[in-house]
Amino acid sequence: MGAYILRRLLLVIPTLLGIMIVNFTLVQFVPGGPIEQIIAQIEGQGDVFAGFAGGGDAGAGAEPAGGSFDDKYVGARGLPPEFIAELEKEFGFDKPPLERFLGMMGNYLTLDFGESYFRSISVIDLVLEKMPVSISLGLWSTLIAYLVSIPLGIRKAIKDGSSFDTWTSGAIIVAYAIPGFLFAILLLVLFAGGSYWQIFPLRGLTSDNWESLSLLGKVADYFWHIALPIIALTISAFATLTLLTKNSFLDEIKKQYVMTARAKGLSERKVLYGHVFRNAMLIVIAGFPAVFIGVFFGGSIIIETIFSLDGLGRLGFEAAVARDYPVIFGTLFIFGLMGLVVGIISDLMYVLVDPRIDFEKREG
After folding, report:
1. Residues facing residue 349 across a β-bridge
2. What is the tens place of the pLDDT at every residue in 200-221?
């Protein structure tokens, strides 16, 4: 197992490098950048794409000799070339792309992720500042999904084909079909003062007076604020996990060792939870790290925006819109590395749940 883990760890390096190369290359072909963003704001366009749409009419003033300045920054005709050159030097765009990429990766090896172009704060501090919101959403939604889906999936497997199995399957499919953002808006309208009841707060992770509350009051206030976002984020997660649990149990129940256990006179409860559960839960439990990372990174952007929560999802979206490259590439490197490591942890979870699994023999 040690050799397998070592190989997986060594594979992280080229995989992560490939991720960074592909994304860095793609960014070079995307119109608009931090300099264009600044130019658009100075010219009063409000959006960098207004400069591209406006073509030769954007801005005012004399054109620099040669026209190369105008060709590169369409909306900057009223700005002196010296100013643009200073901006390029400040952001490092006076260097060729390859040199910029190698310098960036060299800094990442020393855990230097740079500073945000527009926020005057280091990328690491920015990530640490936003992380509590995303951890709260990812952790609680994943735990709730597991706590509900596993017992429900087991019950559906035991009652396979019954009316309980039928109507719960229908309810699960309906919940899965509802878009998360639409359900979040519905919760706001119903329970956050939209048109009906003002039961839950509209935005934020804590109240303004959170620091003055007692320990019990802080805990209650925290859960009061995250209740609606967690429900909205979790509603569609039940379907896959519940059906996975059910199908896994059904597969195990049909195996020979279960029939043998029943023939020996073991009670149905002991057969299910003493023999079937461990084998059936292998894929479900071992996949917990990957499920958490999936919710942690990908499932909270819209939810954070709707509930005005300042988390990593919203940070990534705002960085992409503003072309804040240090934040974009810094978070991509950090989360890409975390995702690859979590993949290794998932494999270790399989071995912990079922020691019979040997990845080294499978690779051979």
Report:
1. none
2. 887 777 787 878 888 888 888 8
66, 151, 210, 247, 303 from 253: Cα distances, Å: 78, 16, 50, 10, 39
Domains of the chain are: 32-101 (no CATH), 124-363 (1.10.3720.10)
Nearest to 19 by CA among 333, 339, 342: 333
Structure tokens that stand for 23 in this block: 């994304």
- 91 has pLDDT over 60: yes
The phi, psi pair for 203, rounded to 5°, reads -155, 165
Q: What is the mean pLDDT of the chain?
A: 77
**Local structure of 122: helix, strand or coil:** strand
Q: Output the CA–CA distances (angstroms, integers) from residue 34 to 20, 75, 83, 140, in the order listed.
A: 19, 13, 14, 36
- Can you give the pTM of this predicted structure? 0.70
DSSP state of 198: B
The CA-based dihedral angle spanning residues 148, 145, 238, 166, taken in that order and rounded to the nearest 10 degrees: -10
Q: How far apart are CA 78 and CA 108, in angstroms?
A: 37
Q: Distance between CA 235 and CA 124 in Å, rounded?
A: 32
Task: Output the DSSP codes for 244-312.
Answer: HHHHHHHHHHTSHHHHHHHHTT--HHHHIIIIIHHHHTHHHHHTHHHHHHHHHHHSSHHHHHHTT---H
How does DSSP assign 348-359, residue by residue?
Answer: HHHHHH-TT--H
Between CA 193 and CA 128 the distance in angstroms is 31
Q: Please name which of 97, 77, 126 lies closest in space to residue 24, comparing C-alpha atoms.
A: 97
Report the candidate in 229, 137, 221 with the shortest Cα–Cα distance to residue 188.
229
